[in-house]
Structures are given as structure tokens and as C-alpha cells.
Design brief:
Blueprint lengths: L1 E5 L5 E5 L2 H13 L4 H4 L5 H9 L3 H12 L3 E4 L12 H9 L16
Antiparallel strand pairs: 1-2, 1-3
Amino acid sequence: MAVAVIRSDPPRIFLAESDEVLGRLLALRLVARTPSIELEGASLLPSIRQALLDERWGDAVELWMAATGEVVDAYPDEEIATEVALDRDHASVEIRLAPVFEDAGPGDQAEP
């Protein structure tokens, strides 16, 4: 999964299945939906438009950030926790091997 957080008030969060889809999503739902009047004072408007037309999604988002002063934090390779990948048995074993238990003395370990 890929995640982007726009540091606005309130923050906006975008989720996509991959980095490639996230770039397209941000270009369509964030950059392209910004009224041109908000970008007309920015000399970057023609470049933003061209990047969108050329499907250079990352460039469009980067130019949009420069023009608006907004910040987009992107996390392209976030793992999705699912019941299959993290079932109770797996979690129970993994928790016992976690660093929190490494330095505990014989009488200091928590009871399962």
C-alpha cells in the first residue's frame, strides 16, 4: 500500500495500492482539482499543466507543492496488516520473541 499525507488543516490522507497509483491519485484528486485561480500567481502553472498532460504525476505533485507551499509526505511501501498475515497464533509467537523480552531476567518475564 502507498500512503500520502497532506499537512493541511485538517490533514488529508490518500491511500493507493502502489506508488504508481498514488502518484496518479494525487495528480487527479489534489493537483488537478486545485482551482487555477489559486495557481495563476505562480509562474509554475504552465509547467503543472504540462506535467499533468504528459502524465508525469510525480513532477506535477512536486511543482504543485512548490506553487502552493503545501507539503505532501508520501510513504510508498507501507505494509497492510491483514488477518491472514497477522493471525493470533503468529502474533502470540512474535510477541514472545520481541525485543521487549530480551533483557528480562528469569523472574522478570511477563506471564503469557
